[in-house]
Amino acid sequence: MAQASPPIPVAELRRWLERAERRGHAPGLLLPFGVGELDGHLPGGGLRLGHLHEVVEGGAAATYAGLATLFAAGIAARLHGPVLWCLRGRDLFAPALARVGLHPDRVIYCETWKDRDVLPAMEEGLRCKGLAAVIGEVTQLSLNASRRLQLCAEETGVTALVIRRWRNTKEKGLAGEPNAANSRWRVSPHPSNEEMEDMGRQQWRVELVRARGGEAREWIMGACDAKGYLALPAALAERSAAAEGAGYRRAG
Length: 252
Description:
Low-confidence stretches: 1-5, 22-28, 237-252
Strand order of the largest sheet: 5-4-6-7-3-8-9-10
CATH topology: Rossmann fold
Number of strands: 10
CATH class: Alpha Beta
Helix content: 25-40%
CATH architecture: 3-Layer(aba) Sandwich
CATH superfamily: P-loop containing nucleotide triphosphate hydrolases
């Protein structure tokens, strides 16, 4: 495991954010995933930037949220600018982030130990226009706390990503609480076929659990590559193209 960065006092974090804000960046409105099947289903054709998005993980290893972390890192990797990552522990593996395109030089780590410390740190970061994204790991995300994050993101155009993490069944039960996230994603492991294994790429089940203005849906995807992009396995892409072609023929 990579050695974690030393804790950053709030005053020092605030000075760093002020320097980043002076650099500034021009946020876009949407971030496409680069997969037609997925982008075509999302309202507007991509992930809405300058909003709050939530990522959870399914499967036996959901406690560690490893896939959810890589999914969020892949999104951040495709944005331009520094990323503030608010940690709740010291188990974030920087080389894994680099493998999905988020180089450690782009990340500043803010180490906290409780949700009540993570959420204020995220708010502080979201007020800085110079950041590409703010990512936070939390157990609980109340409606009021999520609204505060959403408002901060809307004001500056900085995208907020919350990774939900649990240590026990009781904490996992908090997942059902309503919040103001623009979208909610669940990422789970899926058995890889030979094609994906030959490419050294895992397969994920990516579920859009909730989206403002959209409908829930799920896809089987190849995991994020070295630039943060997901991929639709070729066999599934071929079947999808064939189905679309048949639909066009019937319509004609």
